[in-house]
Amino acid sequence: MCDLKKINKVVHFDSDKKMITVQAGITWKEIQDYLNPYDCAVKVMQFANLFTVGGSLSVNCNGIDPHVGPLIESVRSIKMLSYDGSIITASRTENAELFYLAIGGLGLFGVIIEATFDVVENSIYKRETKRMCLHQYVQFLKNIPYDPTIGFHFAFLTLSLFSKQLFSDVVTFNFRTYDPSKLFQWQQKRVKKLYQEKRVKPRKLSTKMWSKSRLVKALHWVPVGMMHGRIVSRNNIMRPPAKHLYVETPGQTNLLQEYFIPIDNLIPFITSLEGITKKLNVNLMHVALRFIPQNRESFLSYTAIDRVGIVLFFNQEMNEQGNTQTRLWTQHLIDAATALNGVYYLPIQLHADQQQIRTAYPSIDDFFVFKKQYDPNELFMNHFYQKYA
Asked: Is the CA virtual torsion 185, 187, 188, 189 positive or negative?
């Protein structure tokens, strides 16, 4: 195991070129803390800011800015520790093949120790919340690429309380660009002050209830209207509360999965998700949706076309029955996704069989060939490689 948490410094920041170089063990929160006084923000990252840059690069994460693709899109270069101890710089113009393999390469090509990213202005947005049916939401997604006023977007499927159906409608969160000149200086300063996560213990209790009660799940988004109209900064949108999701319940765990589906096939996939989840009685807590534009740069790209990212948050019993239930559920969902020209996110649990991973990622065997070329002694090893190579 390679722990990079102690190499967590900002190496260089150029405010004019909007570019930052950081060590791989730094978290997105620490980068936000550094950039905020310069009125700058991260261009793309996971929705939560708890993760390290090195880990995020290894899985080529995606975010909620609908005009920016996966993380690789904002990366200018990386530095890697190779199997022979040498330091290699990789970018689109230098060692380009390694650049495209290592970002999203699950740590199999070396240890990413440093990265240079584009950053952007810490803009101000106005939050807009709305409920709509799934059909309306599909049409809304098709229009997102042509609407530059939407700086961020995500949505949640609401769970039905009284209907036999699992899902009812969609709650959308859109953050539209807002003219800062409409605010006094003191108001701008207040809006751009970084949020600090509070009330973690009560939130943890709420999450426990959330996993046990269908009523809590169904009513979870009732107060969503109170969030409408708030003025927020880019940095604060990208640091939502997340610590409360780490709930320590004996014999249980909360897990995430993600699938990427073409917009036109979203409704058929949600229909399959509903049927499979009900059949296997999986404790699904919420379904988050986001738009991810096409980017094919990473060798194992999951966005060969524009797709909807579907994030599943669920609770699992930590026993043989729970593991079997999740494995069957996952395999059925992977089949449903690939049948609809979609894929699943490789960093999730290793429940896919050999055929499923090759259906979703036809170039995976070529990826393993390149791995042997860049790491002939197979020094960099993980469970993913052991199972599928």
From this structure: positive
